């Protein structure tokens, strides 16, 4: 068993693949072995998390997830921990493994109660063994009441395999849990599942632990993963210290940020978005960074030519950019003006990041979408960085539909546009055609502040400009962007400008 960290690239398996692996393991292991291992692992973790618990309450459901809880209760009882089990199964409908664990727990003298214990304190522990990968509908009735009791208490919660109600494939939860009052932990069993790390997964799971139940050794052939957590298949871009001594700024690629619309007609200016992306590219090591503000007619309005916040950045008119030689980051604060320049950008730029209003423009034009696909045929690199609403516009669906299955949304877009897609949000999904997507393990809610998406786009641009392929560029950038937020000093506010300045090559 180990705690999953942001350093651990890990294959993630779907529920269907997990079932197949479970089935294969059961063919070669003695009956009940997997559940015994699961229960022992759960009991060990429970003891480690709450060594001084006065009460360990195990809420056990009607299937094998409940069986894991019953098995864990038996060990905790043997270790003198006085567990209390509330079980809501029906004996005649129990699967054989869970039935066996029920008998073992009863025979051991574990205390059963129909009422959840009152007065749970911070040193106590609740174990959620209600539903695992067999959940078919949202919890209701007594089960929902027990869950509410658990999450309203001051005690820590340890969920076995999957937090009850969470879709292990997608991370969607019809009734999201309330904000945690105490630490949450999840011990996922046999396989790590993608839904634990995206959409509602991160909030529902808290810290995730993994025990493979010793099964891989028993399996004949590995199941292909549905996704990777933190896949970093390519070496990161070498840090600045590894650059040759005889370097010059032309060695690291030029990035042009095209966006930051100033519209006299609409009375709006979004230059800040372009500056943030440019600042990110600069601090992430791009050789030369241009900012190309747009206006109604595709050329900058005078206001956009005000001094840039960082003197290292250079202003360029769109018509003065050498599109065939640069990496473009297009769309940050692009407004409607981006529509006029997008066809030329798509045609000419060898490396391109499409963000925000560039994505909105694509969504409105099948011709532009075809132009994105054409880029791949010509060997040009394209990365799109939509948030869920932008992804929904591209897919012709809604943001909530995208959030219900973020992996599928990102995969579909990547296949449709033949490009790398970075679907932002809790558990950013990075998808590329023909390979399992990656879920980024870093980042937190402090990134939910204006401009951080522009910073990510600029960072990916810098990585592309340095010569990275789009997939590792996107994975590595998402990782670094989130890791900075994870390491941010607790008492300092996180702003996008400061985030950009803390990026490193
Ligand atoms: N994967 C493994 O190798 C191992 C899995 N273990 C554990 O077993 C569960 C999966 O068990 P299963 O019996 O298939 O499913 P569940 O326990 O999640 O529940 C199925 C059970 O619940 C009923 N049900 C479904 N939804 C609801 C609902 N909303 N309300 C009430 N009842 C519901 C359904 O009809 C079934 O009766 C896995 O997650 C692991 O925890 C092994 O023990 C170790 C190996
Ligand atoms: K559970």
From TrEMBL:
Catalytic activity, reaction form: (6R)-NADHX = (6S)-NADHX; (6S)-NADHX + ADP = AMP + phosphate + NADH + H(+); (6R)-NADPHX = (6S)-NADPHX; (6S)-NADPHX + ADP = AMP + phosphate + NADPH + H(+)
This one is known as: Bifunctional NAD(P)H-hydrate repair enzyme
The cofactors it requires, by name, are:
K(+); Mg(2+)
Domain YjeF N-terminal residue range list: 18-221
Q: Name one GO biological process term.
A: metabolite repair
The positions annotated for binding (6S)-NADPHX are: 64-68, 132-138, 161, 273, 331, 387, 454
Q: What does the Swiss-Prot or TrEMBL cofactor note state?
A: Binds 1 potassium ion per subunit.
Q: Give the similarity note.
A: In the C-terminal section; belongs to the NnrD/CARKD family. Belongs to the NnrE/AIBP family.
GO MF terms on file?
A: ADP-dependent NAD(P)H-hydrate dehydratase activity; ATP binding; metal ion binding; NAD(P)HX epimerase activity
Q: Name one Pfam family in it.
A: YjeF_N
Q: Its quaternary structure?
A: Homotetramer.
Q: Where does AMP bind?
A: 424-428, 453
Please give the superkingdom of this protein's source.
Bacteria
Q: What is its EC number?
A: 4.2.1.136, 5.1.99.6
Its biological purpose:
Catalyzes the epimerization of the S- and R-forms of NAD(P)HX, a damaged form of NAD(P)H that is a result of enzymatic or heat-dependent hydration. This is a prerequisite for the S-specific NAD(P)H-hydrate dehydratase to allow the repair of both epimers of NAD(P)HX.
Name the NCBIfam families for this protein: yjeF_cterm, yjeF_nterm
Q: Gene3D superfamilies of this UniProt entry?
A: 3.40.1190.20, YjeF N-terminal domain
The gene coding this protein: nnrD
Residues binding K(+), per UniProt: 65, 128, 164
User: CDD domains under this entry?
Assistant: YXKO-related
The protein's matches in InterPro entries, at most eight in alphabetical order, are given as:
CARKD, Nnr, Ribokinase-like, YjeF_N_dom, YjeF_N_dom_sf
Keyword vocabulary terms for this entry: ATP-binding, Isomerase, Lyase, Metal-binding, Multifunctional enzyme, NAD, NADP, Nucleotide-binding, Potassium
Q: Which residues form the YjeF C-terminal domain?
A: 232-505
């Amino acid at each position: 068993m180990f705690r999953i960290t942001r350093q651990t690239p890990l294959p993630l398996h779907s529920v269907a693949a997990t079932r197949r692996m479970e089935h294969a393991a059961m063919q070669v292991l003695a009956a009940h072995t997997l559940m015994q291992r699961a229960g022992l692992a759960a009991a060990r973790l429970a003891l480690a998390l709450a060594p001084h618990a006065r009460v360990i309450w195990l809420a056990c459901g009607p299937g094998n997830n409940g069986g894991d809880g019953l098995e864990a209760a038996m060990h905790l009882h043997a270790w003198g921990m006085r567990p209390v089990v509330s079980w809501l199964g029906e004996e005649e409908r129990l699967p054989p493994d869970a039935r066996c664990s029920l008998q073992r727990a009863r025979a051991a003298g574990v205390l059963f109660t129909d009422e959840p214990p009152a007065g749970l304190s911070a040193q106590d522990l609740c174990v959620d063994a209600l539903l695992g990968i067999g959940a078919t509908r949202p919890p209701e009735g007594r089960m929902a009441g027990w869950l509410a009791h658990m999450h309203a208490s001051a005690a820590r919660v340890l969920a076995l395999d999957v937090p009850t109600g969470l879709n292990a494939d997608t991370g969607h939860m019809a009734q999201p849990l309330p904000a945690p009052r105490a630490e949450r932990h999840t011990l996922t069993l046999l396989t790590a599942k993608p839904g634990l790390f995206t959409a509602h997964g991160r909030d529902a799971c808290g810290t995730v632990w993994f025990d493979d139940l010793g099964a891989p050794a028993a399996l004949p052939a590995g199941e292909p993963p549905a996704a990777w957590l933190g896949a970093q298949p390519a070496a990161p871009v070498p840090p600045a210290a590894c650059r040759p001594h005889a370097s010059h700024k032309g060695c690291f690629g030029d990035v042009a940020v095209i966006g930051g619309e100033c519209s006299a007609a609409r009375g709006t200016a979004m230059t800040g978005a372009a500056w943030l992306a440019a600042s990110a590219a600069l601090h992430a090591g791009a050789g030369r960074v241009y900012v190309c503000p747009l206006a109604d007619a595709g050329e900058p309005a005078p206001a956009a030519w005000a001094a840039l916040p960082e003197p290292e950045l250079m202003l360029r008119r769109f018509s003065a950019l050498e599109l065939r030689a640069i990496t473009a980051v297009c769309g940050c604060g692009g407004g409607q003006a981006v529509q006029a320049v997008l066809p030329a950008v798509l045609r000419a730029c060898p490396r391109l990041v499409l963000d925000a209003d560039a994505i909105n423009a694509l969504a409105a034009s099948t011709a532009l979408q075809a132009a994105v696909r054409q880029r791949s045929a010509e060997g040009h690199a394209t990365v799109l960085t939509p948030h869920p609403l932008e992804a929904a516009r591209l897919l012709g669906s809604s943001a909530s539909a995208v959030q219900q299955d973020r992996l599928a949304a990102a995969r579909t877009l990547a296949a449709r546009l033949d490009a790398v897609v970075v679907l932002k949000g809790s558990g950013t999904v990075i998808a590329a055609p023909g390979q399992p997507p990656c879920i980024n393990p870093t980042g937190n809610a402090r990134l939910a502040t204006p401009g951080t998406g522009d910073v990510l786009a600029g960072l990916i641009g810098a990585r592309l400009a340095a010569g990275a392929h789009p997939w590792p560029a996107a994975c590595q950038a998402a990782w670094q962007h989130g890791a900075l937020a994870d390491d941010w000093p607790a008492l300092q506010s996180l702003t996008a400008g400061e985030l950009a300045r803390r990026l490193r090559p």
